[in-house]
Amino acid sequence: MEAVRDYVLEVQDLRTYFNLPEGTLKAVDGVDINIAPRQTVGVIGESGSGKSVTAQSILQIVPPPGAIQSGRIFLRGSNGSRVDLCQLNPHSREIRAIRGAEISMVFQEPMTSLSPVHTIGAQIAEAIQLHVTRDKRKVKRIALDMINRVGISNPKQRFDEYPHQLSGGMRQRAMIAMALSCSPSLLIADEPTTALDVTVQAQILELMKELQNEFGMAIMYITHDLGVIAEIADEVNVMYLGRVVERASTVELFKNPLHPYTQRLLKSIPRLGGRGRGRLDAIRGNVPVPMNPPPQCGFASRCDDFIAGKCDAAVPSLVDMGNQHFVRCYLHSEASEPIYA
Ligand SMILES: Nc1ncnc2c1ncn2[C@@H]1O[C@H](COP(=O)(O)OP(=O)(O)OP(=O)(O)O)[C@@H](O)[C@H]1O
Ligand SMILES: [Mg+2]
User: What pTM, to 2 d.p., does this model score?
Assistant: First the structure.
């Protein structure tokens, strides 16, 4: 068993489904993820593996017809309270206070969280006003400081500019400033650098690490890019078809990948530092859509080590291989005790 730690976030057996006319799409199908204070937990997986829906579930913003079917999501608030977010009404004042003040989110496309009709300054100030202080002078001071901290030059001038007046990299910085302006205990970053060129991407990662040191927040970092994971994450969760199939410290995962899927991901890195590094679509076959999925290993149809009668007969459990290394695969499950069904 994992040692009991004082986690910021505990996601337990989360299941989030989309009930569509064609059937039930099991976007997230039994996910467990714990995040400790100041820890950066990476989530990696191909397109459609359920990374964003996991993030949306944590924030209670899953779009209909999606809904959380079961599971618990405990958040340790800055006041020490431990709240199950799934028990809160998604429209309640409580969850709205948590979004922004305790958990902030940055997305791939800044324009999904920045309004085009308000200035950068007004938007950052609004977040501070809502969650930190109503004192107008203090609000402006904190906002200007944040704009400066994220490396946007001429903060005073930028304060009065609109998002479209900024470059992509600068907009991304503005969104990070907004997300961090109320010192959240958890930042969820969903592919925040994917659309940016490699240099700007490296700058943003550096910045996030710096701000993490300064503000002490935990980060859940979602990405396709193994290079980015190696750069930023302490621990990695590899997702496939709505499930975590492997979890280990970043060093351990790169050194000793156990799941055939993870092994293939690592082999798909063409050369470090090169363009297109870590592109996950280099793996044979497409990710199936988890529509009415049969009770079997999700990777069965693409796996070179597939064992008939076993891998297609039940869903393997996530088992502890020791050294905080977990894997969900029948090639490894004989030896160890399952920890999660
Ligand atoms: N609003 C929605 N309506 C219906 N199905 C959805 C919706 N959002 C996500 N899905 C489905 O849920 C599954 C998981 O999607 P999700 O967006 O979480 O993947 P992802 O891992 O974030 O992928 P990407 O890397 O492309 O961002 C996919 O099969 C997707 O088609
Ligand atoms: Mg996504």
Answer: 0.91
